[in-house]
Design a protein that fits this description.
single chain; about 450 residues; Uridine Diphospho-n-acetylenolpyruvylglucosamine Reductase, domain 3; six-stranded mixed sheet; five-stranded antiparallel sheet; 20 strands
Length: about 450
């Protein structure tokens, strides 16, 4: 495996002579084997360890193991302790996503501050396959099917050639110390479900499933490069980059309406997902003013063009909406439509989707920043509650409170946009028509296109 490690680095041009590499080391078997291999080859390395404070004393023991290894071999060592659960709660993230965001931001800070050229992570071949299967299950394009790459910007994955079994065998041969994270066996996590429940079944069908799926991913990676080249040239031909935005020629876009894959790849850099693709087609085919708000961009139709602009916070704090289509004036709402309420209709449970009784909403309505003294009747409650108290109870951060908007009809709050509707506007047995409003995840206001 020592020779294979060196060969994989060379074949994929991961490291240049003289590069300094920051190793991300958790203390688990993969990262400890990776560190051992780098040390054996005399690379210029440092070790970075994150203590996420998720496993009480176990997290501290992980940190001590990595610290001792770095000390024994005279390797520069960097560590940090995070309150991961508090960060996840404040930013409304899963603990796993919170830990990911925290560590990669910190790794990059350490890399820049201490002059490292690359960041090495210990993903192995099984991790690559699991990621491919997760992406396939959730729905993905060619990029998702290609799985992890050996190098992405300044992040390298020098163990992608090795299976988990290869790593375990090598560890046993060289008696490399490591610590086992018991949560790796917990199948409540999606990756662990794939690892412990799905892949064993696939191995019954194909004992060489790791090799097969890796070869498949590499083929898709090749396809992805071909598609990327085609899409890049197409985007140059049918779009024009201006100072503050990008415009697409609608007549040329319409020639691809039959091919959703092309549209997806064209607009994927602007936050378009598979779920938003139908909405994008409607905007292309619709009237001037139709728009989509993604997590990163605003996409709007303006006569014969589709205009794409970056999302920016602006000073607008008050909007008057005169009709249903007018909700597009507020960039924090991605779509608005009336729906017929039947026995089979299911009210969405997503707080970013409001479904209210259309007859109880009187136009014009107002969308505005909340203010002191505002109150409403939270869905399911018959007692009035001040918004300030509601925000405290639901642990809104200062940033959340500064950026929250409300929908007001006839002086009554109908919806805290992106959160909870007022009980007085809910769908009831007598409701014939509903108003369905979709907000984006963070209802930030963007500057209007000039």
């Amino acid at each position: 495996m020592i020779n294979e490690f060196k060969k994989f680095i060379s074949e994929n041009n991961l490291i240049k002579p003289g590069d300094k590499i920051l190793l991300t080391v958790s203390g688990g078997i993969d990262s400890m084997v990776m560190t051992y291999l780098f040390h054996k080859h005399d690379y210029r390395i440092g070790i970075a360890h994150c203590n996420f404070s998720l496993r009480a004393g176990e997290s501290d023991k992980d940190e001590e193991l990595v610290r001792q290894f770095a000390s024994d071999y005279n390797i520069p060592f960097y560590t940090i302790r995070f309150d991961t659960k508090a960060f996840a709660k404040k930013n409304r993230l899963s603990v796993q996503m919170a830990a990911r965001d925290l560590r990669y931001k910190w790794f990059e800070e350490i890399r820049k501050k201490n002059g490292y050229d690359l960041i090495a992570v210990a993903h192995n071949l099984n991790d690559k396959i699991e990621t491919l299967l997760i992406n396939l299950t959730r729905g993905t394009g060619l990029t998702g099917m290609a799985g992890m790459k050996p190098v992405s910007n300044r992040i390298i994955r020098p163990l992608l050639f090795a299976t988990r079994q290869d790593i375990s065998t090598f560890r046993n041969q060289h008696k490399i110390i490591f610590r086992e994270d018991k949560s790796n066996a917990d199948t409540k996590y999606t990756r662990n479900k794939i690892r412990h429940l799905v892949i064993p079944v696939l191995k019954e069908i194909n004992p060489s499933i790791e090799t097969t799926l890796n070869e498949t991913a590499e083929r898709f990676s090749g396809f992805n490069e071909i598609v990327y080249e085609y899409i890049s040239r197409l985007r140059e031909r049918i779009s024009e980059e201006k100072e503050q935005f990008i415009t697409f020629n609608i007549s040329q876009l319409k020639t691809f309406l039959h091919n959703k894959a092309v549209l997806y790849e064209l607009f994927r850099p602007y936050g378009i997902t598979n779920a938003l693709l139908i909405d994008l087609i409607k905007v292309i085919e619709g009237k001037t003013g139709g728009q989509i708000i993604t997590d990163t961009h605003r996409i709007i139709k303006n006569r014969k063009e589709i205009v794409v602009s970056d999302e920016e916070i602006a000073s607008e704090t008050f909007y008057t909406i005169k009709n249903v289509s007018g909700f597009c004036l507020f960039p924090g709402i991605s779509s608005a439509r009336r729906v017929r309420i039947t026995e089979s209709f299911e009210i969405p449970s997503d707080p970013h989707i409001a479904c209210v009784d259309s007859e109880k909403v009187s136009f014009p309505v107002i969308i505005r920043k909340w203010k002191a003294g505002d109150s409403f009747y939270p869905l399911g409650m018959k007692q009035k509650k001040k918004l300030s108290d509601y925000f405290i109870d639901n642990k809104y951060s200062k940033f959340d409170k500064e950026n929250i908007f409300i929908l007001e009809s006839n002086g009554k709050i109908a919806w805290i946009i992106g959160d909870r509707i007022d009980d007085r506007f809910k769908i009831t047995d007598s409701t014939k028509q509903g108003l369905l409003l979709k907000s984006k995840r963070k209802a930030l206001i963007i500057k209007p296109i000039k």
